[in-house]
Amino acid sequence: MNTDKETHKKSNGGLYIVIIILFIIILRNNVSFLSNLLNVKLNITQAVLKSEIKWLKYYDKTAITTKLSLPGLNLNDGTTITSQNDEAVYNASLRQALDENNPQVYIYHTHTSESFFNVADPIDFKISEEKRYNISGLGQTLCDLLENDYGIASRHDDIVHDEVYVGAYKSSRATLEEALAKYSGYKLIIDMHRDSVDNVEAETAVINGERVAKIMFVLDLSHKGAEKNLKVAQDLIAISDRLFPGLCKGTYTYEGGSSFFNQDLSSNNVLIEVGSVCNTLEEARNSQKYLARIIAEYLRLVASG
Q: 217, 230 in Cβ contact below 8 A?
């Protein structure tokens, strides 16, 4: 006979029924519980979590806006962005007469929502839909530095292309084709990204006493004319290595990248990774004045033939 086992089964069965009934009552009286559960957003106050989990402070964007401030470089208050007060970076001899009718640099973003760990979405810590916190905000910083510091007319396109991540290059290709149809005289086209390598030491340099996100060039070599894109990247890298050793990691090449990374549309088109997901937004912003100087040097090289 199995009387003990049968009694145990019956008692467990009753317990399971009670648990199910309690769960149904909770759900019926708190609909938001199910909603929050499905959205992975528990109804726990941030203040309590902050006292227990220190890294949650990075997701308090209100606090971060005051933390991420640089002399002459503030995206939050409309201040003119310039690095002219930094003599270690700025070179006044590179300044041109600004000609808005003849832009020289075009900046766009295939993966527009790429962000940095201290300002990214608390659920998906690699992206942000807020432009001041994602890679498109960084592109605007570079555009402003080129114009304000060096008189280099630039165009920045912050159209979102990665709402459907798989189709991002197809979407950005259409944007670039439209831009080139309107104006084909760009001397440099940049698809600006943020890398995904989770190694802060490998992705960060210290230049002039400040932490700076490193840069890297990504190229597809499987299309006709790829050698011209590669030459542009090599020229930019040579300037970077001469002026700011350690800033640039070099090139990463593909054979058959998605849509050739759109680099088949122009011989002046390069993809630049600025920092990685492990970098802070401040470190990525710091790198922009160095990148602006490198581009200004490169355009003078191009102009000299």
A: no
Distance CA 298, CA 305 (A): 11
Q: Do 32 and 178 fall into the same domain?
A: no
Closest CA to 272 of 242, 247, 255, 304: 247
For residue 99, what is the domain's CATH number? Answer: 3.40.630.40
According to DSSP, the β-strands at 105-108 and 188-195 are parallel
Q: What is the pLDDT of residue 40?
A: 35
Phi then psi for residue 120, to 5 deg, are: -75, 175
> Are residues 38 and 175 located together in one domain of the fold?
no
pLDDT value at residue 135: 97
SS3 labels along 98-154:
CCCCCCCEEEECCCCCEECCCCCCCCCCCECCCCCCEHHHHHHHHHHHHHHHHCCCE
pLDDT of 67 above 90:
no
State residue 53's pLDDT score: 30
| pTM, full prediction | 0.75
First to last CA, the chain: 98
> To 10 degrees, the CA torsion angle through 68, 73, 79, 85?
140
